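Course assignment 3, question 2. Fill in each field.
Student: A.L.
Task: Predict the tertiary structure for the chain below.
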Amino acid sequence: MPLFPPGRRQWTGERLQVSIKPTPMFWPPRDWRKLTADQKLTAWRFVAMTLAREHRADTVKKERDVLDKYAMLALPGTAVASQPGEDIIIKARLSNYNLLKEICLRKLVGNEAQELVTMLEAATQSKPPNDLVKLLDNVPLRLSEDAKKDK
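Answer field:
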């Protein structure tokens, strides 16, 4: 599982084919802006679980782990997935993500920021980016300063 969830994206452009098994799957869903927050969450859960199964993620035991791994597919306005409040691993992932977000927004700078990036880079270097992450390279990150807009 990731040290931090992949950055969420600005889904404004064309749909991308994210899966070919058992049939081609495209993201985001057609007319996704018309979906309710709960419908967006359901769609995200479905695509995340499908991709996890496609990539044989049989070691994944919790839904929250799968949603963290595929966080980049969460749509703006998606309902918050229920998560255990005491899960220290989830809290650590989200803390790492928020620190990286602060660096990207230039709210955290200097040696502390550089050291954090260096540590996280070193910890993730052994894993090459997967095909899905490469596919999303052209979809801009969603890093709004307003936390409500970045859900």
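Instructor remarks: Residues 128 and 134 are 10 Å apart (CA to CA). The beta strands are 16-19, 25-27.
Grade: pending
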